[in-house]
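All the exercises in this workshop are built on plain-text protein records. A record pairs a protein's sequence with a compact description of its fold. The structure tokens are whole numbers drawn from a learned vocabulary of backbone shapes. Once this layout is familiar, the rest of the handout is easier to follow. An example says more than a description, so a record of this kind follows.
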Amino acid sequence: MDAKTSPRDTAQTLRIEGMRCASCVAHVEKALVQVTGVSSASVNLAAGTALVTAGPEVSFGALAEAVKKAGYELVRDELTLDIEGMTCAACVGRVEKVLKRVPGVLDASVNLAARRAHIETSGSVAPAALVEAVRKAGFGARPAADVTESARAATSEAEEGELRRAVWIAAALTLPVFVLEMGSHLISGMHDWVQGTIGHQGSGWLQFVLTTLVLFGPGLRFFRKGIPALVRGAPDMNALVALGTGAAWSYSVVALLAPGVLPEGTANVYFEAAAVIVTLILVGRLLEARARGRTSEAIRRLMRIQPRTARVVRDGSARELAIEEVVVGDLVEVRPGEKIAVDGEVVAGASYVDESMITGEPVPVEKRPGSTVVGGTLNTRGAFSFRATKVGADTVLAQIIRMVETAQGAKLPIQALVDKVTMVFVPAVMAAAALTFGVWLAFGPEPALSFALVNAVAVLIVACPCAMGLATPTSIMVATGRAAAMGVLMRKGDALQALRDAAIVALDKTGTLTIGRPELTDLVVAEGFAHEEVLALVAAVERRSEHPIAEAIVAAALAEGLELADPEGFEAAAGHGVQATVGGRRVEVGADRLMRRLGLDAGAFADTAERLGDEGKSPLYAAIDGRLAAILAVADPLKPGSVQAVAALHAMGLRVAMITGDNARTAQAIARQAGIDEVVAEVLPDGKVAALQGLRREGRKVAFVGDGINDAPALAEADVGIAIGTGTDVAIESADIVLMSGDLAGVPRAIALSRATMRNIAQNLFWAFAYNTALIPLAAGVFYPSAGLLLSPVFAAAAMSLSSVCVLTNALRLRRFELPASTQANRA
């Protein structure tokens, strides 16, 4: 479809999914050409693309919205860039703005703390185009996939080292300036000493030389970044510092070299203000760099978990190979005390493996042939061999690192408001500084020009967009790292905020609350029979059955180390039970109806049968040599920590519900044992979605915890989906949060961390906004007429540097997060 084209029109390519026929092509073309500014649209069904020619005013988002309204979706690709040179929230807004202008970009989200940009694209968007757009905005960029974590760490260390050198040089040059100028005011006799040695003019020239070295040596970075940002019409924090210090320095140079051009009584120098401001801001950036390095410690710790080499058996002999050379199918040997190189399955040997670095659980896990092992975990005592099943980027550890990186780069909904404020913050501060200068010059006391200059510089310097830009992302980075250390993986960073708002936690039963497989839970023997004797005989008979209940009984006998004889004459009667002869003894196992058919009275176990029924278990009976020998029950029992986890959730003020496809009687029995408030039973997978919608009544937010394929729809529907890491890949992919161990204790941990993180963010935002709200008016001299209060530019610089450090330090407190004592007491 074509309309009139313009020389300014450009072509954009969109990748579209969901088109099946020529009618789809017509629908999409019609939707696209109806967008104002689009001159033509040509859709290729075979390639699944649309070539759109449109004016520069047509955003890619408008085209994407048109395609969506037509009933189709754009194919989305994701790319992450490492961004260099960002210093404040204004930088974040600028980078996001230029990235979103690149044709093919659907969305861009920039994280100041992580120094990363996450970009969603559709169509053929070359990484080089994105890098070039960022470069033109005055920042550096490179694809994150091209940079190793060790290289990032080396870059951070180099940056910190360079800042440290700059601070020492600036401090050494600033100290004499500060002593010469301020010492004359503060120290008795200092003024006379200066006048008697180097003189007033000599002092001015010395201050000029030293301050010039500070501004255009260590402080040159502010001018290199700030002046181009001003020219582009996108001022940032560097621009504020460059303007403030540049104004103080320039005024002082005029006062020193040509005092006659200034009004009488205003030829004062402010070299010490310019020098001290630069030094203090550099100190703040150094402290900020150190703190930011600690926020990324979680990723580096995860990277250090994986060993560098593995002992691989090839051509009949074991050899040490670099971890990158291990391939799927390799046989890998592990000795006591060694780390496991990659994911795999044990084929020989046995040991206990410490998986705490992955799951957060401190107790080593037994590994035997057939057990799975995870790369990065620590073998403790025994030796074993395993077959590699996942290597490189496919290992559990690599996936965890990707999840943590993704979550750390995410933006919470609360950040949207902050972004809107910071986009206009720096221009507003510049306007406030100009207004301050004008008002003081017009209405201020003499020397009005000096007052106007000092207060305008103080306004420029005291404003701190850094604190606002760091308030949310630093808390997210530290919290997601801490969560990973506790075995809780945030697949989506915004789950932190959503989880805080949850009022109900809904749990799946099988595999989530319970172990997920039947186990022998009860065996009560009649008088004259021994426990081991009965279990061995019953298990011997059940060996011939393929029923899950039979497998549970056999597993229990083997776990107790009992030897099972071979049964003879095995028979199975549908709906009744099984029978066979074992070692010359006749054994029958089945329901009460089988006992009645045998003429045996099960009344002796009436009380036990009633108890088992109340617990949702169906009792079985065993008869040996024509005598009633035992009552037993097989059920899917609660996990060891389920009761404590539910109690911990109650202690946090949450209601707990259970949604299950199991029968109502069993579900109610499990709910009573676990202390669950609300039960929805006998539901299909789509019924779980309806049940979640029912729990949302009165606007309540619901978190759902599940582990199976049948839980995937509910995990996707819930306000927050939490998957058990021992569950299926489908469930994990549908969830917002993954618990690496099967322990439900991770749920209260995640919720408590979410609440602590949101409190931390609120504290950071309050500090950032309250700081600027309080100090900008003070710097402008608003309180001078009533209270005589003014803010020196030197103190403004100190306060500005301190604000960012306070935000970062507060966020770092989350590294020490532990489950609240009140909740732990309820779990004890």
